Every structure is written in C-alpha cells, then in structure tokens.
Amino acid sequence: NSRANPPSVPPKNEILAESEFAAPTITEPIPILSSTLGAFVAYNVNLVADQFQRAFETSTSGNRLHCSLNKRWFPDQVFNDFIACQIVRFGYEVSFEASDKGAIEILGPCGISYTFLQLAKRMSQLQSGFV
Predict the structure, then answer these.
(1) DSSP per position, the chain
(2) Which residues contact 111 (CB under 8 A, 6 or more apart)?
(3) Most CB atoms within 10 A, among 26, 51, 65, 90?
(4) How far is CA 31 from CA 18, 35, 57, 65, in A?
(5) Quick check: 91 and 98 in contact, CB under 8 A?
(6) In this predicted model, what pLDDT tens digit does every residue of 99-117 receive, in sequence order?
C-alpha cells in the first residue's frame, strides 16, 4: 500500500497559492516595509498624541471616560452602574426627600399645630356668624 502516502507531491497536484514561488518577487518585501512604516508612524503619532492624552486624562470628563473604558465590564456591573443606581437615586430623591420629608414636616410636632391652626382659621372664615 505504498500509494496511500506518496513521498512527494506531483506538480499537477501542488497548490500554487501556498507555494513561496507562486508569488511575484515584488510582493516579498511588503511585510517588512509595512512593519517599518507602522513603527515609524506609531512613534511619531505617539509624540503628538501624548500631549493630547495628558490633557484629556486630566480633565474631569476625560478622566471618567478613560477610567470607564479601561476597566473590565461585567454584566452585573453594567446593570448596577447604569440601571440599579439610577433607580435607587430616583427612589431616594423622590419618595424619601419629597414625599416622606414633606409628610414628616406637615405631621411633625410643629407641623401638626401649624396645620390645625391654619385649618381653624379657614373654618372660622366659613362661619359668618349669622344663623
């Protein structure tokens, strides 16, 4: 069964796309040229972008954006930061500060006496004194 694994591949069965001799000679230096050009551009852009990056990171909004983009984001963290915290803040500001504090101020010790005093004044204005 020597035909199952031939020691060499006949030229008619060779895939020329994978052969190093199939590509034209002009394309051979493209990888080294593009790598060198990329390194040169990265070095020069880094010199210019360094000043911009420092100014961006020292601003408040830039620092927040930089920190947000440079940390790991887990689904539960995204949910907590953007949804749950907003709901909790809304619940505190609306239900506690506005409703509960308002009710406590109205129904508190000074609030009850003031409320009954105002209610008594209104009721006395309704009474004309005539039968």
Answers:
(1) -TTSS-SS--GGG--GGGSTTTS-GGGTTHHHHHHHHHHHHHHHHHHHHHHHHHHHHHSHHHHHHHHHHTS---HHHHHIIIIIHHHHHHIIIIIIIIIIHHHHHHHSHHHHHHHHHHHHHHHHHH--S--
(2) 104, 105
(3) 65
(4) 17, 6, 35, 36
(5) no
(6) 766 666 667 777 777 888 8
Rounded to the nearest integer, the mean pLDDT of the chain is 79
CA dist 71 to 53, 61, 77, 95, Å?
Answer: 17, 16, 11, 33
Amino acid at 130: F
Distance separating alpha carbons of residues 93 and 88, to the nearest angstrom: 9
Q: Taking the CA atoms of 100, 105, 106 and 112 in sequence, report the sign of the dihedral they define.
A: positive
Q: What is the pTM of this model?
A: 0.31
State both tokens at 36.
Answer: 């060198």
